[in-house]
Amino acid sequence: MSELNISLNADTYKPGATLSGHMQWSTDELMDEATFRLGWRTSGIGTEDIEIVEIWKEPVNATSGTIHFEHPLPVFPYSFSGELITLTWFLEASFDSINTSDVIDILITPQDAEIRLHATSS
Q1: Which of 111, 119, 103 is nearest to 21 (CA)?
Q2: pLDDT score for 120
Q3: What pLDDT is recorded for position 112?
Q4: Cβ of 43: how many Cβ atoms within 10 Å?
Q5: Where are the alpha helices (DSSP H) in 6-95?
Q6: Which of 73, 90, 91, 107 sees the fewest Cβ atoms within 10 Å?
Q7: How far apart are CA 98 and CA 83, in angstroms?
Q8: Collapsing DSSP states into helix, strand and coil, what is residue 111?
Q9: What is the pTM of this model?
Q10: What is the chain's mean pLDDT, rounded?
């Protein structure tokens, strides 16, 4: 049985900051590298959009272990939540050869909390 878990060193990141965290795994097969995908998705009214912004690989060369990772974050778009649409950043780590992955949401904002959009009445 294969397991893969990612954790981040912070809950909120400033635009352009360095994303950092750990990936822990245990597999039955020797893995050469892990693939990381950084992206954002929208949800709410209308079509869901998904954009993969960065893909990078980290060497692991083991059947189990823990690695530390760091990667620069983009400066935009910001994470936000509104009445009609929400934009959420995510990080996925995977071993593509055995179809094992984990995904964690990331909050990227210039503030210390998620940006909330509210409809205004005229």
Answers
A1: 103
A2: 66
A3: 83
A4: 13
A5: none
A6: 90
A7: 39
A8: coil
A9: 0.92
A10: 94
Reduced to 3 states, what is the DSSP secondary structure of residue 98? Answer: helix
CB count in 10 Å sphere of residue 11: 10
From the list 100, 99, 91, 96, the residue with the least C-alpha distance to 33 is: 96
Please answer whether residues 105 and 89 qualify as being in contact, where contact means their C-beta atoms are separated by less than 8 angstroms.
yes
Q: What is the pLDDT of residue 12?
A: 96
pLDDT at 77 over 90: yes
Is residue 119 situated within a structural domain?
A: no
pLDDT band at 109 (very low <50, low <70, confident <90, very high): very high
Q: Which two tokens stand for residue 103?
A: 């995904």
Q: CATH code at 61?
A: 2.60.40.640
What is the mean pLDDT of the segment spanning 97-107? 96
Whether residue 118 is contained in a domain is answered as no
What is the domain count for the chain?
1
Does any domain span residue 76? Answer: yes
Is residue 50 a contact partner of residue 41, using CB atoms and an 8 Å limit? yes
Check the CA dihedral 34-37-38-42 and report its sign.
negative
Would you place residue 121 in the very low, low, confident or very high pLDDT band (cuts 50, 70, 90)? low
